[in-house]
Write a structure and sequence with these properties.
Blueprint (H helix, E strand, L loop, with lengths): L1 E6 L2 E6 L1 H11 L3 H10 L4 H10 L15 E9 L2 E9 L2 H4 L2 H17 L4 H5 L9 H12 L4 E9 L4 E8 L4 E9 L2 H14 L11 H17 L4 H19 L5 E2 L2 E5 H7 L2 E10 L11 H11 L2
Antiparallel strand pairs: 1-2, 3-4, 4-5, 6-7, 7-10, 8-9
Helix pairs in contact: 1-2, 1-3, 2-3, 5-7, 9-10
GO cellular component, one term: cytoplasm
Family: Belongs to the EF-Ts family.
Subcellular location: Cytoplasm
Amino acid sequence: MVKLIFRGGQIMASITAKLVKELRDKTSVGMMDAKKALVAAEGDMEKAVDYLREKGIAKAEKKSGNVAANGLAQVAVDGNSAAIAEINSETDFVATNDTFKTLVNNITDLIAAQKPATVDVALELKNADGESVQDMIIKQTQVTSENVSLRRFQVVEKTDSDVFGHYLHNGGQIAALVVLEGADEATAKNVAMHVAAVNPEFVSRNDIPKERLDHERDVLKKEALNEGKPENIVEKMVEGRLHKFLAEISLEDQAFVMDSDQTVGQYVASKGGKLKAFVRYEVGEGIEVEQKDLAAEINEQINGSK
């Protein structure tokens, strides 16, 4: 939270300790550098990260956010349709239980077969016994005494000439689903393994929004100039660094994990195929769970009982 205060007739941003900590966690810089960046950016987190990068203080490490929920992700294929889904539980103990695994498999199979548009619609899907997904989840909750939920899913379609490939890492903590035009299922599975391991953002550089590329190019240019590089070589440096940036977020441009001498795009092309789409789920990504201070909680209970 950023508070506004008046000083010398001007409105200034009051930077909280929480905001400083958040920026430090994102960039691994020192406390004073983080505070200085936030002051310069008037409390705007994204502008503060750019400030640090332009000054060469931080490289803005990519963070996936707080990951604290448990559960499993799964992939199911039904003809030319495939579904990837995430079902959550409160603890990893329940997530590794066989009944929970069966629940996850059954729900994902139903989604692939019936292709619902939303989670609410998916909860109404029924199996051959007339039991709805919602009923199945309630039954699981009653057995485990834990909250179980269908968090999200995506249905992916392909043509007869396309192939699906999927991969589950660590029993379903990460699930990846890939669609290739041409090639074969073995190639598609290898790409899915790469997606699970490297976590690209886009299929190719053509899918990256122009604003994102322009913003990155501008930041890289300021970074190079602030390093004292001559202007006549800055453009070449920026293009080189931009290529590296693309190799980090574009699946097609990434070095293939099974053969770093070629990109993923080159690998797929060598098998007679072309990248079309991918989906990657990591269980709990983006879910922020309150962190409790056990000592403080116990102390509060002791003092409260007096």
